[in-house]
Design goal:
Elements: E1 2-4, H1 10-20, H2 29-39, E2 47-53, E3 56-64, E4 90-96, H3 105-120, E5 124-130, H4 135-141, E6 145-152, E7 155-163
Parallel strand pairs: 4-5
Antiparallel strand pairs: 1-2, 2-3, 3-4, 5-7, 6-7
The structure holds coenzyme A.
Coenzyme A (COA) binds near residues 95 and 96.
């Protein structure tokens, strides 16, 4: 079942975040907390949905409504796609527990977010990931198209977007 995020989900959503993140090394606990704030906590007051089975949170999707308005808190790599945010304003992150991947939950979470954004009058949404990540195929399967591909440090980043 997909439903709106509620405050009592926080602990489990944070567990999913740390289960699925690719970054595991931090110089300090403060830096670790900043990372969680930047990629999870700062979004929870905007738009957030969870996939649940009973009391268990299996996955979540979170989004900022208007990326251009949050520039002060951007991670540095967000600046390289600046010219495309006006067309795809909302910025999303999605993660599912490993045991719940590949069963269609991610697609249901995307649909819940897209319907919510559409109802708010948001005209498009996007995400940024590594160009060679497995999840690129996930987004393409659900209708996201490549908006831009740019080098970043030693890799390439891809911005995928959907007009609503
Ligand atoms: C990416 C993710 C949210 C997709 O949700 P999901 O419920 O697994 O995906 P669905 O079942 O709706 O869609 C299946 C498609 O997703 C992709 N996929 C499946 N398992 C995946 C995995 N472990 N990681 C990345 N993509 C995956 C495949 O393209 C698959 O299509 P196929 O069945 O035709 O091969 C989820 O797999 C996940 O959390 N992965 C790890 C973290 C991650 O990559 N998050 C996104 C960061 S940008």
């Amino acid at each position: 079942m997909i439903r709106a995020y509620q405050a009592h989900d926080y602990q489990q959503v944070a567990e999913v975040f740390w289960e699925t993140t690719t970054r595991v090394q931090f110089a300090s606990e403060t830096e670790r907390q900043q990372f969680q704030n930047q990629y999870l906590d700062d979004y929870l007051g905007q738009v957030a949905f969870v996939a649940v089975e009973g009391e268990q949170v299996l996955g979540y999707i979170i989004a900022q409504l208007d990326t251009l308005k949050t520039e002060a808190t951007w991670a540095p790599h967000l600046a390289i796609f600046r010219e495309d945010y006006a067309s795809y304003p909302a910025h999303l992150h999605i993660n599912c527990r490993e045991a719940s991947q590949g069963k269609g939950l991610g697609g249901q979470l995307l649909a819940a977010l897209e319907n919510d954004l559409l109802a708010r009058g948001v005209k498009g949404l996007h995400l940024i990931t590594a160009a060679d990540a497995r999840n690129v195929n996930f987004y393409k399967k659900y209708g996201y198209l490549q908006v831009a591909l740019k080098p970043w440090k030693s890799t390439d980043l891809i911005m995928l977007g959907k007009i609503l």
